[in-house]
Design brief:
The protein has 277 residues and is of the alpha/beta class. The chain is built from nine helices and twelve strands. The structure holds iron/sulfur cluster.
Length: 277
């Protein structure tokens, strides 16, 4: 058995930055609230919870914000959240990834120019919800080609992407939108870390007999890595922890990649288990 790791995998710069900023808040001796998941990885979230961070799904859950800190996740939030947090007396510590910020700024600019924004992304994903807010709350999320027929707008169309989309899917959907709206303006807001991880994963998948993709089920970029590796025809399994690894899968050359929110310690656990076989 040989084990190969993708050239780019695991924590991206945006997640590493969010993790570091959030960790720094732990030592301040003040209540820290996390709005939604800081990053989409259960092991990371559990680590913060065990350090005393209070998880909230909405700001309404915060009864007493006295001297509290609100962590905004790497996926970002809608603009109204900042005002709500301020009104509650919370200090906002914003870990929004700079790539997501860039997409938010483009969404806002397009809305300010009177355009209707189409967001190519996963309906219900935290980042997409935030982008929707920055696009003035009048945008539409396009998850698949089927959603395009429901798009009715006499305004000029601007298209952006959830940062963790695959380039292939974005290009395919843009082509379909362009058939309906030839003058639509396209802004490819897919982040560099996502593209690098996807390219490295596909290159490796083509060379091995089994691909293991390590990452949380709630992580959009991990899901995308799994889909891309499966599309190469190589047997591919996504696992969140070593407990999900079925030893019956193991054979010959094994490739490993991990989502952008998967911490090093989880990747090492899997690799150590493989070496022990
Ligand atoms: S995957 Fe990209 S957009 Fe998301 S946190 Fe990482 S660098 Fe930022």
């Amino acid at each position: 058995m040989q084990i190969f790791t993708a050239e780019h995998s695991g924590f991206c710069e945006g997640v590493a930055r969010a993790y570091q900023i959030a960790t720094e808040q732990m030592s301040k001796g003040r209540p820290v609230f996390m709005l939604g998941n800081l990053v989409h990885n259960t092991q990371v979230i559990d680590k913060f919870k065990s350090s005393g961070v209070k998880m909230v799904k909405t700001l309404e859950e915060i009864i007493s914000a006295d001297n509290g800190i609100l962590l905004i996740s790497a996926h970002g939030v809608s603009p109204e959240i900042y005002d709500k947090a301020k009104n509650l007396g919370l200090e906002v510590v914003d870990t929004t990834c700079p790539w997501v910020k860039k997409a938010q700024n483009i969404a806002k600019q397009l809305f300010d120019q009177g355009m209707f924004v189409l967001i190519v992304g996963d309906i219900g994903h935290a980042e997409v919800k935030g982008l929707f807010g920055w696009a003035g709350g009048h945008a539409q999320v396009i998850e698949s080609g089927d959603d395009i027929k429901d798009c009715i707008s006499d305004k000029k169309i601007g298209i952006i992407a959830q940062t963790t989309q695959s380039q292939e899917n974005f290009a395919r959907i843009v082509k379909m939108i362009k058939k309906k709206y030839p003058s639509a303006e396209v802004y490819n807001t897919i982040c560099g870390a996502t593209s690098k991880r996807q390219k490295a994963a596909v290159e490796l998948a083509k060379k091995v007999e089994l691909m293991l993709v390590i990452g949380d089920k709630m992580s959009a970029n991990t899901k995308r890595l799994t889909e891309l590796c499966q599309a190469t025809g190589t047997e591919t399994h996504q696992i969140q922890t070593i407990g999900e690894l079925d030893k019956k899968w193991l054979k010959g050359k094994i490739g490993i990649t991990a989502g952008a929110s998967t911490p090093d310690w989880v990747i090492k656990e899997v690799i150590n288990l493989l070496w022990a076989q």
